[in-house]
């Protein structure tokens, strides 16, 4: 009881010491926020760079502060000016965003509202939190009530705890910032709201107490709300680890209020009382000696019983091992034959008897040479029998390839395997084991597999041949164009000559007929050239059916997800709410979209991480389905725009220049159009237009994306 009372007193002293340390950290939080408020009051107008520099300097002194953030007040009146300012800072793709937790669990554009509180400053600028810029915290359900309460009161206020987007549990300590009538910062009710400055307090570091503070590490610390109804954060001490295997005798707990105007929390300190906390060395030593004597007597008795059980288990294990060996030998698909030192057969499993074509009675006890021989196929010289070689050399002999097993009944089989010696404990040879496998079925399966492999190789070569024909077509394009141009020129000349001859009268009829026949012949020649070109590139009939362009985009996003994450590219999908039904081949349209996505990812390779965005947008315009792929790169040069879709033109060092040309061919064969343009101060935009299917009805036109 005396030891337990001492433990209680030490716990009470340590709990109050921990309470003092954490209360001091809360005071530091309020002091830092007061310093930021005082800094803003000394300025004629709100100065973001000064706030950012001061925050960077002061954060290094307070490890419990994760970041300093500023939420700028944006209304309907100043929304466009705010967006223009932010797009100059972050790029043309900046937008006010919400986080869609219920739906896609991703960032979505926020609708126009009467008031936003938008994240415009994070100090330090953590790369993992870069996507939070533009977040409307006022309309996030977790913050709305606390934000409104802080703006109405004008005083510092702590928010409910939440998990960071990049990991960790924190809460916000907020202070509204107002501009008074004279331009200086004022209080609520006397000025215009500029925004809210907030300290992001890291709960884990708030409860992390340095050993130099004198607080024992085994204390469990918890921060609760003012009414103790919910826990904000729990930090377990070292006893939590020990308690997994060492039972606790009792539990000590103490709740102490943290007197803070804006952070009205309650600190709960707990500790499990373990046997190791009691200083009872002498008593434990005496009891230990008595216990060890009892344990020694029990161990002697247990050892005798264990020896009896071990002997019984060893006998059982020998029997089981022998039984398992027998069952294994009977179950394996290899023939196993055991010979004694006199080279007589001691044992043969069922597969070995099948290979020999003999019964067990005909085999057991016979010299192996009277039962079987191992002969090399097509052997050109006299070779030693492998079994005799194993007896002589006392080492394992691997059977060479194409070894034949000749039985006493005249059967011959192709086998593989090995002959291994058996040794006694003192190392003397006690026999050999022959392991033989029938290679006949294996040969049959190998032949079937080879035939199937040759068929796959043939199909693959046909595909490669088709791809080669496509590449050859590109190289032959200029020559074919020249060859087709010749008959077209001749047809034009013959027709012009016929018109001139008709002006001379009826005497020119034979010459006109001759010229027209020649023109017909040249037309047939041009048709034959086109026919040969179509035969060169044709492979299969396209599977044209009704498809949804939104589904095509979804399939492509699944295929490109890994590359987008690896390159740090943010993907924004603005898809039509109506089906984008067109008649096309789904595989070919996926090839077009993936080609455009690949080009967009290549265009963002040298851009900063904050400016790597790709926007894919689908909508309807009249009877057309529109699909746009935009990037935030540096755009396309005016010289390249003119020849962008020409075959063999490429801006890449090792590009073949066929990707966009093939995309154009695919889109145009479905009656569509593909084009490219530069978006001012943003990047490149590729636009695909396809005719909508007449079987699906929808509004004539959808509103375009802002």
UniProtKB/TrEMBL annotation:
<protein>
    <recommendedName>
        <fullName>histidine kinase</fullName>
        <ecNumber>2.7.13.3</ecNumber>
    </recommendedName>
</protein>
<dbReference type="InterPro" id="IPR042240">
    <property type="entry name" value="CHASE_sf"/>
</dbReference>
<keyword id="KW-0812">Transmembrane</keyword>
<dbReference type="InterPro" id="IPR035965">
    <property type="entry name" value="PAS-like_dom_sf"/>
</dbReference>
<dbReference type="InterPro" id="IPR003594">
    <property type="entry name" value="HATPase_dom"/>
</dbReference>
<dbReference type="GO" id="GO:0016020">
    <property type="term" value="C:membrane"/>
</dbReference>
<dbReference type="InterPro" id="IPR036890">
    <property type="entry name" value="HATPase_C_sf"/>
</dbReference>
<keyword id="KW-0067">ATP-binding</keyword>
<dbReference type="InterPro" id="IPR006189">
    <property type="entry name" value="CHASE_dom"/>
</dbReference>
<dbReference type="GO" id="GO:0000155">
    <property type="term" value="F:phosphorelay sensor kinase activity"/>
</dbReference>
<keyword id="KW-0808">Transferase</keyword>
<dbReference type="Pfam" id="PF00512">
    <property type="entry name" value="HisKA"/>
</dbReference>
<dbReference type="Pfam" id="PF02518">
    <property type="entry name" value="HATPase_c"/>
</dbReference>
<dbReference type="InterPro" id="IPR036097">
    <property type="entry name" value="HisK_dim/P_sf"/>
</dbReference>
<dbReference type="InterPro" id="IPR004358">
    <property type="entry name" value="Sig_transdc_His_kin-like_C"/>
</dbReference>
<keyword id="KW-0597">Phosphoprotein</keyword>
<keyword id="KW-0902">Two-component regulatory system</keyword>
<keyword id="KW-0472">Membrane</keyword>
<dbReference type="InterPro" id="IPR003661">
    <property type="entry name" value="HisK_dim/P_dom"/>
</dbReference>
<dbReference type="Pfam" id="PF13426">
    <property type="entry name" value="PAS_9"/>
</dbReference>
<feature type="domain" description="PAS">
    <location>
        <begin position="321"/>
        <end position="369"/>
    </location>
</feature>
<feature type="domain" description="Histidine kinase">
    <location>
        <begin position="479"/>
        <end position="694"/>
    </location>
</feature>
<dbReference type="Pfam" id="PF03924">
    <property type="entry name" value="CHASE"/>
</dbReference>
<keyword id="KW-1133">Transmembrane helix</keyword>
<dbReference type="GO" id="GO:0005524">
    <property type="term" value="F:ATP binding"/>
</dbReference>
<keyword id="KW-0418">Kinase</keyword>
<feature type="domain" description="CHASE">
    <location>
        <begin position="42"/>
        <end position="207"/>
    </location>
</feature>
<keyword id="KW-0547">Nucleotide-binding</keyword>
<dbReference type="InterPro" id="IPR005467">
    <property type="entry name" value="His_kinase_dom"/>
</dbReference>
<dbReference type="InterPro" id="IPR000014">
    <property type="entry name" value="PAS"/>
</dbReference>
